[in-house]
Amino acid sequence: MRRPHIAVLNGPNLNMLGLRQPGIYGSATLDDVEQICIQAAERLDVGIDFRQTNIEGELVSWVQECRGRFDGIVINPAAYGHTSIALLDALLAVDLPVIEVHISNIHRREAFRHHTYVSQAAIGVICGLGVRGYAHALQAITDLIEDEG
Ligand code: DQA
Fold first, then answer.
1. Binding-site sequence positions
2. Would the CB of 79 count as within 6 Å of ligand 1?
3. Distances in Å between the alpha carbon of 108 and those of 10, 28, 88, 111, 115?
4. Atom of ligand 1 nearest to the CA of 102
5. Where is the binding site for substrate, in residues?
6. In which pathway does it act (predicted)?
7. What is the pLDDT of residues 4-61, one digit of tens each?
């Protein structure tokens, strides 16, 4: 059996990690987050494709492309989680397990961050654990894929 492949997708402004509001998001850069994911993937013996975009339509297209190519999706939709029905529809259309990640605890922040459309497509949500949340999400989705298989 081939090892599971997981798409790790990141939405807008996450390319600014390390510079952006470090009191909320910490000092790790997006490259550091990718390294955390690569190390977690090696430990879990899964393949990953790590991507970031600032463009909503590109994120929607990447989600669509996951169908038939990947076994699960870990997504930090960033602000599009709070706004994008198109992203929710794409995640519902691909018929894959989804884990949503937020670096910050969105429930301790402004009210407009408390709701995310993406959560309706996600099996689970990890928020507030910093960039380590990505490693937890990869562990969780690998467990889910193994349970399914
Ligand atoms: C975020 C939380 C969102 O509310 C925000 O728009 C982001 C980052 C997080 O990882 O904590 O861009 O998704």
1. 76, 82, 89, 103-104, 113
2. yes
3. 21, 21, 23, 8, 12
4. 10
5. 76, 82, 89, 103-104, 113
6. Metabolic intermediate biosynthesis; chorismate biosynthesis; chorismate from D-erythrose 4-phosphate and phosphoenolpyruvate: step 3/7
7. 999 999 999 999 999 999 999 999 999 999 999 999 999 999 999 999 999 999 999 9
Sign of the four-CA dihedral 93, 12, 123, 114: negative
User: pTM of the full predicted structure?
Assistant: 0.97
Q: pLDDT category, 148, cuts 50, 70, 90?
A: confident
**Mutation test residue for ligand 1: of 10, 21, 83, 102, the one with most atoms within 8 Å of CB:** 102
| Token pair 């463009």: residue | 55
Distance (Å) from CA 103 to ligand 1 centroid: 7
Ligand 1 atom 6, closest CA: 79
The superfamily CATH assigns to domain 5-148 is Dehydroquinase, class II (3.40.50.9100)
**pLDDT over 90 at 1, yes or no:** no
Helix locations, the chain, DSSP H: 22-25, 30-44, 56-66, 80-83, 85-94, 132-148
